[in-house]
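This is your field. Have a critical look at both lines of this record:
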Amino acid sequence: MIFNIFPRCKRDLPNVRAPRTIADKIMEVAAAILLVLIWVLAVIFYHKLPDIIPVHFNFFGEVDKWGNKGYLFFMAGIATLSMFYCANFNSVLCKNSTTSCFNNIICNSINDWLSF
């Protein structure tokens, strides 16, 4: 079986839920406010931008990729998806962590990495 290469893999791991602290809630509210700000600024400045805008810079600060101004909404959408994914990570990926060995490994590794 492929999961035998992972020593931390156990099918009988407990399904532990850590309650959200006040600091977690504050960070989520701050992230939501910044997300709304990204969308508001994208809408406000869309008509003021030129048709072609820089979308990527190299190590020296020089533009190495150009795109149309619609790219602004694409990046705001990526920010929105990232925020929702991060806010719901444990409930989405680790929901059935007692039945999936691979999810246990991912959840444990990421939670260990995030708990600095």
